[in-house]
Each structure stands twice: as structure tokens, then as C-alpha cells.
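TA notes, week 10

Several of you asked for a full example with nothing omitted. So below is the full record: C-alpha cells for the whole chain, then the designed sequence directly under it. When grading your own attempts, check the secondary structure regions first.
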């Protein structure tokens, strides 16, 4: 089994930018991270530094491409490899209006031969792995037929890694947001796909929210990809290195992560990048902890603007620490009262 994909964080538009990925890498050293989807034409004709730059600390890191033209995708893949990405991934699962109008994303589930042609073209011009992220089907397709057909066609083109969001995409009748929740999950179908293609690396995605679920899926498939939970409650990733990859070193605490983010924030501000570009990704760091609500409020009220000091992070941390100390004092007093009674 290819262990490189045992745990991945999903590509999420407007969320998994370079600042979010730098932050997530402080929590897990081994999870595989993905960029937001970038269209092949944007890379070919746009501001490549803005679209592709990343910090080396983010690796292992995959570039997710959107598109359906083999020549454009192969050129973008080559640029991505030259930029230093460890993997090139093709989006065959996004149901947004933008990708439908461009005839790529989940629309490509209807044309497995075209997907295979695209993958073959990309593989021919890069040395890094070229992978597919797809749905189990779209609209009135029968997933038990559509998914193996796509996987088989791409495998014939040399693809070895498939990341499968275990839901259909309804391109007609559901919004992109509704497509994340309403189509039912079919984990069993993805598990069965692994049995059908035992030599391929099959990664399952969709609705996975706990480490217990992660470990259960890993008894059936080669890897797990987590999306929204890794964004809304990012410290959820703290157990990944130990439980999934067998690491023995101690993870960083939430407070230690904030301390390490302050120098990073100073670099951003020195470059003229607003602090909010980072802090908007940090809202869930203290989810479920004493002071978590105060953390979010402090950043919301103090980190917005073009000339905000990185020391706002230290101020938010001080608020959390004070609340945690207060909560500990209350708990100790309650325990003392219980012991005395």
C-alpha cells in the first residue's frame, strides 16, 4: 500500500490557500495537503507566483488542476512540477456552476475516455504522481457502473491513485453547497472498489469527522481525505501523525502553534498582506476549549484591516490563556468543595 495518501486534507475553494496550509502543517507533519483547484488556463496565462507560490514547510503538497483540455492540462502540470509540487491532481468532482460552464470538474464523470486522455497527457510530461479526485457518479448515472468505468479507463492510462468523494454530484437540481450534504454517502461502494482494484491506491472522502471513522475506513481502503472538519476544527488533526502514521514525537499544543504563527504573520504584514489573510483560517483553533468563543471574537474584532499588527495574535492568545486559567480555578474549587463534603 502507498502510505503517502493515508491521510489527506481536501482541496477546498477559498479555504485551503497557502496560509491555511502553513497553519495546518504545524498541527500535522505528515498529512498530505492539497491546494485549492486552479484551472489549467489560469496557470498558463495568469499570475503564476500568486497562484502557485507556497512555503516549503507545506510539503508534501499536491496541486489540484481544473480543466478538460489535454494539452492545456499537460502544460499546467509541467509548470506545477517545475514549481515544486509533489503531486498533480485532476478535479473530476466539483459541481459548481463555474466548472459546469467550462465542461470540467464533475461533468467529466460522463466522459471517462476524455479523463483518461487528460491523465495520459499529464503523465507523459511530469515525473511526479498524477492522480484523480472524483465523485461516484453524476445525475442519473449508476455509480456501480460509472465509477469503475472511470477508474478502469484512467488506470489503463497509468493512474495509480484515486481519491473518491463517496457521493454523487447532482449537476441539475442541487447547488454546490447542497451537493456537499444532500446526496447520500455510499462508503460501501468505495470499499468495494478497492476490492475490485486491489493494486490501486484508493482514498475515501466525504462526511468523515472523527479519528475513529478514519481508522475504520483504513481497514477497507488505503487512505482517508477529510475536508470541512479539518477547517472548522483544525486541531482535530493533532492525532493524525500518531494514530495514522505511527509518529512518536509530541504534537504542538494550540498555544505553541499560535506562538509559531506570529513570526509567519510578521512576514506577511511586512509584505503588505493583511493579517486577516491568515487569521480567517484560525477561528476554529480553540474549538471546544475554554476561551474558544473569546478567541474568535477577539480576532473578528481586531484582525480586520490593512495595517493590523501581528501582535493581535498574542493579544488573542492572552485572552484565551486568561479564560483557561479562570476555568481551571473554578474546576479546582469545585473539586475541593466535593472532597470536603
Amino acid at each position: 500500500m502507498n502510505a503517502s495518501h493515508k491521510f489527506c486534507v481536501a482541496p477546498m475553494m477559498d479555504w485551503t490557500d497557502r496560509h491555511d496550509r502553513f497553519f495546518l502543517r504545524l498541527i500535522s507533519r505528515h498529512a498530505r495537503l492539497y491546494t485549492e483547484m486552479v484551472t489549467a488556463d489560469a496557470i498558463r496565462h495568469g499570475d503564476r507566483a500568486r497562484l502557485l507560490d507556497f512555503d516549503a514547510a507545506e510539503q508534501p503538497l499536491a496541486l489540484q488542476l481544473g480543466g478538460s483540455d489535454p494539452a492545456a492540462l499537460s502544460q499546467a502540470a509541467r509548470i506545477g512540477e517545475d514549481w515544486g509540487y509533489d503531486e498533480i491532481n485532476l478535479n473530476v468532482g466539483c459541481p459548481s456552476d463555474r466548472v459546469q460552464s467550462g465542461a470540467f470538474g464533475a461533468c467529466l464523470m460522463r466522459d471517462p475516455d476524455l479523463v483518461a486522455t487528460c491523465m495520459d497527457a499529464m503523465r507523459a510530461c511530469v515525473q511526479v504522481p498524477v492522480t484523480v479526485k472524483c465523485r461516484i457518479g453524476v445525475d442519473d448515472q449508476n455509480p456501480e457502473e460509472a465509477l469503475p468505468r472511470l477508474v478502469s479507463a484512467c488506470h489503463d492510462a497509468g493512474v495509480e491513485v484515486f481519491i473518491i468523494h463517496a457521493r454523487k454530484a447532482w449537476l441539475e437540481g442541487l447547488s454546490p453547497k447542497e451537493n456537499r450534504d444532500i446526496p447520500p454517502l455510499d462508503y460501501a461502494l468505495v470499499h468495494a472498489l478497492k476490492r475490485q482494484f486491489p493494486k490501486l491506491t484508493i482514498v475515501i472522502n466525504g462526511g468523515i469527522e472523527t479519528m475513529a471513522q478514519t481508522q475504520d475506513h483504513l481497514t477497507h481502503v488505503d487512505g482517508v481525505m477529510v475536508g470541512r472538519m479539518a477547517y472548522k476544527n483544525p486541531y482535530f488533526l493533532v492525532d493524525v501523525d500518531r494514530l495514522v502514521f505511527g509518529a512518536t514525537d509530541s504534537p504542538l499544543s494550540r498555544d505553541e502553534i499560535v506562538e509559531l504563527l506570529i513570526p509567519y504573520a510578521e512576514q506577511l504584514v511586512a509584505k503588505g498582506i493583511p493579517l486577516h489573510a491568515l487569521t480567517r483560517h484560525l477561528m476554529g483553533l480553540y474549538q471546544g476549549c475554554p476561551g474558544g468563543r473569546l478567541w474568535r471574537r477577539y480576532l473578528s474584532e481586531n484582525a480586520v484591516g490593512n495595517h493590523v499588527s501581528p501582535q493581535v495574535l498574542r493579544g488573542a492568545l492572552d485572552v484565551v490563556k486568561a479564560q483557561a486559567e479562570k476555568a481551571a480555578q473554578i474546576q479546582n474549587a469545585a473539586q475541593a468543595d466535593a472532597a470536603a463534603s
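The CA atoms of residues 62 and 87 lie 4 Å apart. Use that as a sanity check on your answer.
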